[in-house]
Amino acid sequence: MTDLEFLDQAERLLTGVEISCDRLNDDTDADVDNQRVGGMVTLTFPNRSQIVINLQKPLHEVWLAARCGGFHYKFDGAHWQDTKGQGEFWQSLTRFASEQSGQSLTFSP
Fold it and tell me: Quick check: pTM over 0.85?
């Protein structure tokens, strides 16, 4: 993957996170704040816990930090997969956000 291809796919991912968060706030009472600064999106939940998603451009990875730990994702041509086999990005984000918010949330592209 070239740097340009990585940036294109990563931008789609971050934009998808923002859109998904906005959709959750419109459709539920989740009240998840999302702030984006460059290549980083911070999700803040009403209990003040956070999930941080940021780009690691030199590695062509997206990193996600949640209360339960940190995870690295690489694009496999179709999906962002955890580099240690812990699953797909959107499934992981859904699980971590649901755990941290205390309610069932679904993030999707």
Answer: yes
Q: Identify the residue whose tokens are 């999906």.
A: 79
Task: List Cα–Cα distances, 64 to 26, 27, 29, 37, in angstroms.
Answer: 24, 24, 24, 15
Task: Give the span between the Cα atoms of 50 and 42, in whole angstroms.
Answer: 7
Nearest-CA neighbor of 66 among 37, 41, 39?
41
Tokens coding 3: 């740097």
Alpha carbon distances (Å) from 23 to 10, 20, 28, 29, 65? 20, 5, 8, 11, 22
Phi/psi of residue 20, nearest 5 degrees = -65, -40
Q: 3-state class of 72 per DSSP?
A: strand
For the chain (length 109 residues), average pLDDT per consecutive 10?
95 97 93 96 97 97 97 97 96 97 93
Helix, strand, or coil here: 34? strand
Give residue 88's identity as a one-letter amino acid code. Answer: E
